[in-house]
Amino acid sequence: GAVVSQHPSRVICKSGTSVKIECRSLDFQATTMFWYRQFPKKSLMLMATSNEGSKATYEQGVEKDKFLINHASLTLSTLTVTSAHPEDSSFYICSARDSAWVPNTGELFFGEGSRLTVL
Amino acid sequence: AQSVTQPDIHITVSEGASLELRCNYSYGATPYLFWYVQSPGQGLQLLLKYFSGDTLVQGIKGFEAEFKRSQSSFNLRKPSVHWSDAAEYFCAVANRGSTLGRLYFGRGTQLTVWP
User: Fold this and answer.
1) How many angstroms away from the CA of A93 is the closest CA of chain B?
2) Of A72, B85, B92, B102, which is the most exposed, with the fewest CB atoms less than 10 Å away?
3) Which residue does chain A place closest to B38, by CA atoms?
């Protein structure tokens, strides 16, 4: 089946630095990818929709200058956490849409997640 | 406001017992409905989905879910749980009006299986 890969799976950084997380669709093209954030013991929160070749669409309350998203190709979206702080520590998960989102054919595939720890 | 509710934070069952995980949604119209499973430190795997048609949906790993419009529910069931089913389970919805596949998740139910 379709595979979505994230890298790195774990990253530790110092407060004030920036961290980039990659999300790749390995065997299909994804014009749209989604970034989620998962807090401990909490649900996944949709952060933004990443569109290939255009600006990302952010959910309400998500700081676009803090979480920079770039979707430069049909197989790669990146999330950069800028000037990271301890409160940005979380599990970040991406998903990619395989083909058109229509009933019974479209499906989202999720990456393995990236755990960010900001010291 | 739209919402997805999983009322049970943690459920413990014995191996071989039956399982039902609850999910209720609050939407203006019937959304697309999903159940995902997440193992520790892993991404999410789709168990099953409901778009339309038969309200009893069969999924992978022996799971099924039933959509009940009158109750705005989409409960997940399995007749006999295996130890490998221990994981976090998420109910999710997508707006039928959305063509992009944005999902909104419940808070999850942690399943523990006793041997």
Assistant:
1) 7
2) A72
3) A112
Tell me the residue type at A9. Answer: S
Chain A residues near residue B106 by CB distance under 8 angstroms? 43
Nearest to B48 by CA among B69, B27, B16, B21: B21
Q: What is the Cα–Cα distance from B35 to A19, expressed in whole angstroms? A: 31
Q: Which residue has the tokens 């929709």?
A: A49
Task: Tell me the chain A residues in contact with residue B99 when contact means C-beta distances shorter than 8 Å.
Answer: 101
Phi, psi angles (nearest 5°) of residue B106: -75, 175
B96-106 residues labelled b (16+ CB within 10 A) or e (exposed): eeeebbbbbbb
Query: A113: helix, coil or strand?
Result: coil
Distance (Å) from the alpha carbon of B41 to chain A's nearest alpha carbon = 7
pLDDT in tens, B42-61: 778 899 999 888 999 999 99
pLDDT at A10: 95
Measured between beta carbons, which residues in chain B are less than 8 angstroms from residue A50?
none
Look at residue A106 in the predicted model and tell me its pLDDT.
59
Cα gap B86→B12, rounded to integer Å: 9
The closest of B13, B27, B12 to B91, measured between CA atoms, is: B27
